[in-house]
Amino acid sequence: MHKKTVHEIRDLLRRKEISSVELTKIALERINSIDDRLGAFISVYGEQALEAAKDVDRKIASGEELPDLAGIPTALKDNMNMKGTKTTCASRMLENFVSPYDAGVTERLKENGAVIIGKTNMDEFAMGSSNETSYFKKVRNPYDLERVPGGSSGGSAAAVASGEVYYSLGSDTGGSIRQPAAMCGVVGLKPTYGRVSRYGLVAFASSLDQIGPFTKDVEDCAIVLNAISGKDERDSTSADVKVEDFTKYLNRDIRGMRIGMPVEFFGEGISEDVRKIIIDAVEVFKSQGAEVKEISLPMSRYALEVYYILASSEASSNLARFDGIRYGYRAESYSDAVDIYTKSRSQGFGDEVKRRIMLGTYALSAGYYDAYYKKALQIRTLIINEFKEAYKNVDIILSPTSPTTAFKLGEKINDPLSMYLSDIYTVPVNIAGIPAISIPAGLSNGLPVGLQLMGNYFEEGTLLKAAHAFERATEHHRIRPSI
Amino acid sequence: MSVSIKDVEYVAKLARLEFSEKEKVKFTEELNSILKYVEKLSEVDTSGVEPAIGAYPMYNALREDEISPSLDREEILKNAPDKQDGYFKVPKVID
Amino acid sequence: MDFEVIIGLEVHAELSTNTKIYCGCTTEFGGEQNTHCCPVCLGLPGSLPVLNKKVVDYAIKAGLALNCDINRLTHMARKNYFYPDTPKNYQITQDETPLCRDGYIEIETEGGLKKIGIQRIHIEEDAGKNVHMEDSSYVDYNRAGVPLIEIVSKPDMRSPKEARMYLEKLKAILQYTGVSDVKMEEGSLRCDANISIRPEGSNEFGTKVEVKNMNSFRAVERALEYEAKRQMEAYERGEKIIQETRRWDEGRGETVTMRSKEEAHDYRYFPEPDMIYLSVDDEWIESIRKSLPELPDARRRRYINEFGLPEYDSEILTSSKKLADFFEECVNEGGRPKEISNWIMGEILRTLKDRSMEIEDIKFAPGHLVKLVSLVDKGTISGTIAKKVFKDMFETGEDPEKIVKEKGLVQVSDEGAIRELINKVLDENPQSVADFKAGKTKAMGFIVGQVMKASKGKANPQIVNKILTEELNKR
Ligand SMILES: [Zn+2]
Alphabetically, which GO biological process terms does the record hold (chain A) (predicted)? Predict the structure, then answer.
């Protein structure tokens, strides 16, 4: 059962071949049996989930017509607020923080009858690409427990790949959905900036953060995206763009679709096995009638640098509120108010978070703003313009999601720069604010490789159309890890 | 541009973080290597380029001046590390 | 040596909106601590700000009333600093793009009308409140997120008196537009000053000193007088004036160095990424311009032209919208402008000041004042009695006619009765009569006084004079 997709489960529920309570019990049992090895969950709310499941079952029994997601177990990355439960951001700082409110996406899922089973592990405050910066525990890759699941939404990716839940939500600031989706062999979508409400998502970098789904296949991705998209009046940056039914992009012909392959995304740093699998994927698109051409996005070479300035600067300010006064960790001993701040923050945050706060504070400080922050915003303009220009000639842009497959635990944790490089293909998308999806493209040495498709603003439909065509022509999305 | 231990101390103070001497050395090195990396940005000619505040320009998210309910005080203070008589409590602050 | 004093003011005014600037919590003053808060104004993780449209309306209204240009495209910014009353440890304010800029206020100086420039007006959020006790501080976030405008003047004032006049005019204008309560006591109007001196004739600016903690206009003037003197004396002793922030100590009547902050201010301003551009078009601005009421300067000119009031009266009456409204209602009810003005500037303002009350605290209606004046005009009561009636009316808010009737204060003009009273007084004071007859005219005054006293002030003085002369001549 745990290997099934959301659409398969939905049909079983509708045909009353299984109940939501049964599904929930299966999910809880699965978590119980594998999560001490996997480490995907920070908290599990079994009783609450069963209550929600019972509620859905009652509605099914009474013949009510229910949304697609009704009764299906899911999980939220632990940086999304759910009233009455902990939102830890995998940090000692928020170890005991109980949220008094629901995030926009939490409300949406509840309205859709979702059974939220728990909160997933992540890199501390979403800062990391391997999930090793979690204060609580590491998440392991379901394909190889000695390897990382990617990050920062590693828990959400591993939970779906291993079948603990049928879909999950993650957040993506520089690749934090797509990179772990690639490494765990699932579908991960980062929607257009503004497509999904950020209200209640603990901000890492406000101008880059976006919530999106992890699913086993593209159809599921469309279903979850339907549920979470749309304007939220409580998020000023949420876009007032009409939400279509994304499932209408499934099973469509892609003949004549123009696909661009940017040379900069296939340069040095990409591992040979990844390159090979991506080239094979390109052939699949060609055989479906798509027109593939080489393009160039020279400004994207600066995206990672721009990202580290912008994301760190915004983070340095976003994380200032964690000071031990109103909520969160407070140091045990301190001399005065300033000391509460300094000690609580120094003890409450891990090294990677401190590193980014330091970089961001420096980049914004007197005398450096123009050289770093402003410069980065200007290059952001150039990157945006370059993508806009590119989309005059292509419908989607194709690349590997990450230059390598999942690396070993501990391999990069002491080398921040090499860790940062694993986001090199995903970061340009966040800088531009465009949507991108990572889909399974096959295994290399038993490890999943992700294919990234990038679309123009609010063109998630085009991405789903292409991704679904690829899925129909291949079997990669049916591969499941043996855990 | 490169940073010294003194710079790291200044930035740490701004960010309300403190480090041991050993950590200061480590953070100085790491910051320098990241700064050296991002130095590449200075290659790009950005004269006359408008900074992109946000992914794409958006205008006017405004709310009407209508009261919505506040949280109960119990909820407001629930996560407070120290509180008294409905207040958040901190060591005496000198203005 | 002669010095020139250079003053610039930064005024924070709380806007009279129903809700906070970025969330729907009430701005009501005086709620129980930490009851007007939500995830947004508490800065809970994940919460996001959404701008209150009324705040923009009010800030534009203030900007137009202060002759500013309105910035068509602005973006909020974060000002980063750690302080327990600041929930997010940054304030959402405006930096490079204030909503309004380049305005001015006109003040009436001895040298004539003077324009004081306004550099900028921007919108921002207020902080919470720290209550300091012996060992600890207690934080209440009810005020956190209450909308403010900060009005920054150009360094155009040349004396503490000009600074006070600027503040009075600014307060009047904000009050006229209705955007703020402008109550310094409740903290809805706050003022910080920058002051420097330079030798007369010099073109360079001296070192600026910031002065804080002035809780009234009078305090601003006193603090600046003190600070100007302190700087001049330091200059003459050859001391260097240091750039610093000083606090006005009202009790000691001096400014003192504030405990210097541990680090130089490095606020790390950057565009608020949780918010988007604010674009204001002509239509929006024009609709606000149309809603502007007549402002103090225009009203003052009208009082001079339309009512023939002296410059002085017009200035005082229009200094507060409520005072001017009261005056005009009296005139609308048929009061003669100059007479009403005399009453307001005399009895009314004096009584209000004695009791530290505001015009809006007055219990009686404008019509009552008009009636009181007409009672004097008609001879029903004397001017002296009118002042007594006014006191009663002020206390109780009752109709003056009713007071006059109930207390039997109607003036006696009955010649027979007055004659009888006069003869009685003359009979009782033969010496005074004799003195008068001997040419001592002063005695007349004494006799009149005695007659008035005997009538309890109610005798019509003109008739008393007439009959007394007749009766004295008979004797
Ligand atoms: Zn609030």
Answer: translation
